[in-house]
Amino acid sequence: MNRIKQLFSRQRIYGDLNAEIQAHLAEKVEELVAGGMSREEATFAARRGLGNVFQVEERSREVWQSPALENLMLDGRDGLRQLWRNPSFTA
After folding, report:
1. Residue 74's closest CA among 1, 10, 2?
2. Within a domain: 80
3. Would residue 29 count as lying in a domain?
4. What is the Cα–Cα distance from 43 to 26, expressed in whole angstroms?
5. Cβ neighbours of 46 (radius 10 Å)
6. How many structural domains are present in the chain?
7. What's the distance, Cα to Cα, between the start and end of the chain in Å?
8. CB-count burial class (<10 Å; 0-12, 13-18, 19+) for 3
9. Residue 53 maps to a domain
10. Distance between CA atoms of 46 and 2, rounded to whole angstroms?
């Protein structure tokens, strides 16, 4: 049941994940600034240490989501949308 609940609240979960990654990045920047780096150098070093933020988010999502189930749900939604747009074909 928990996986199904995640499917329907994924936008909120993805937003939470993005906010968590940004918080870690900001925390690392502050740590480096406190260590004596300029803010610009610290931001660059923190981003370099974390890696590509988009790829980190994608890897994190793959751990706790079911891609097959999510793809099935998206395909079903797209199919229903196509049927709704073509009522003569649907009938």
Report:
1. 10
2. no
3. yes
4. 8
5. 20
6. 1
7. 34
8. exposed
9. yes
10. 34
Contact 85, 67 (CB under 8 A): no
Phi first, then psi: give them for residue 37, nearest 5 degrees: -80, 155
* Residue 46 structural domain: 2-65
Cβ(73)–Cβ(7) below 8 Å? yes
In a domain, 86, yes or no: no
Q: How many CA atoms within 13 Å lie on the side-chain side of 43?
A: 4
Interatomic CA distance for residues 64 and 60, integer angstroms: 7
Ramachandran angles phi, psi of 52, nearest 5°: -70, 120
Question: Which residue, 62, 65, 49, is CA-closest to 9?
Answer: 65
50-88 pLDDT, tens digit per residue, is 888 888 887 777 776 667 777 888 899 899 999 899 888
0.85 exceeded by pTM: no
